[in-house]
Amino acid sequence: MQTNTPPRNTLRLTRRGRLVTLVAGAVAAGTAVAVPLLLLAGDRDEARPATLVIPEGWRASQVYDAVDKALRLPPGSTRKSLGKAALKLPGEAEGNPEGYLFPATYPIPEGATPESLLRTMVDTANDKYGLAPVTAGAQRNAMSLHQAVTVASIVQAEAGTKADMGKIARVILNRLARGMPLQMDSTVGYALEHDPAPAGQGSGQVQSPYNSYQRMGLPPTPIDNPGADAMRAALNPTPGDWLYFVTVRPGDTRFTADYDEHLRNVAEFHAVHQSAAPAQPGGGVPWSSSSAVPASPPSGG
Fold it and tell me: Could you give the CA distance from residue 298 to residue 38 in angstroms, rounded to a whole number?
């Protein structure tokens, strides 16, 4: 049964606990990507072996920038190469490699091109995701592989620790099963990156298929490239009935199915936030990030 969605002007929580109110003109993450390129020993004038490290949770845009820098190409070169890369993506991806640029350390051989590096990343993802346990896990949770990768990408964005991943995956699946919107700020943040000046005020008015406040179900694609731990969590979520979560302080994430208990956790977060805020330039807290949980209890079941 589809449940009522909470009012758009009520409180919502970010991953690791920061309360946020998204406003028009919210600035998308635009900081320069630092490429962890490890050049091995050798004369600087000679062709040298190198490795490119793709961290867990990087978005495709960050990977493209990293490849450009690693290969000393003009910005935007890797993105422009997608059409001729012949990537082996599932049909549901519709040519978008988001979620399939598997995080790992990749060698950069002599003569490497953007196309060859992207193909290696996607082929690595296909090798990992083609394993029988992955297929069985997706089927067990009534998901396609693409949906499982999408869930894993949200888990990757939301979880402050590896220990929280399985529970966050369960919150996502519980909300989907109950016909509730996910209401995750991480998906709204993805929309803002791709359209930094969307119409409307706040997350409820961001016009995007990635706005999980407005739209039911999963976003149309993954929102980053998840690592193995996040994928395992999506396929084997921790058993539980949780619908809400908030990180009151680092290492103290509270999961609950009871809205009143959730509000008490929110109140405790407020106390921690208020005491920590004066020490933080601009009033921020060091563990704040971007996700959301529902602001009011669901009705029905």
Answer: 50
Between CA 99 and CA 226 the distance in angstroms is 6
Percent of the chain exceeding pLDDT 90 equals 58
Q: What are the backbone angles phi and psi of residue 106, rounded to the nearest 5°?
A: -115, 135
Burial 244-254 (b: 16+ CB within 10 A, else e): bbbbbeeebbb
Tokens of 88: 């082996």
Asked if the model's pLDDT at residue 255 lies above 80, the reply is: yes
Average pLDDT, the chain: 79
Phi/psi of residue 53, nearest 5 degrees: -95, 120
- Looking at residue 4, what is its pLDDT? 40
Q: What's residue 21's pLDDT?
A: 31
Phi and psi angles of residue 51, each rounded to the nearest 5 degrees, phi first: -125, 150
pLDDT at 43 over 90: no
HSE-up (13 A, CA, CB side) for residue 288: 18
What amino acid occupies position 109? P
Around Cβ 290, how many Cβ atoms within 10 Å? Answer: 21
Q: What is the dihedral of CA 132, 136, 55, 124, to 10 degrees?
A: 30
Q: DSSP letters of 64-84?
A: HHHHHHHTT--TTHHHHGGGG
Token readout for 192 is 């803002």
CB 83: neighbour CB atoms within 10 A?
Answer: 10
Contact 246, 266 (CB under 8 A): yes
CA distance 262 to 92: 36
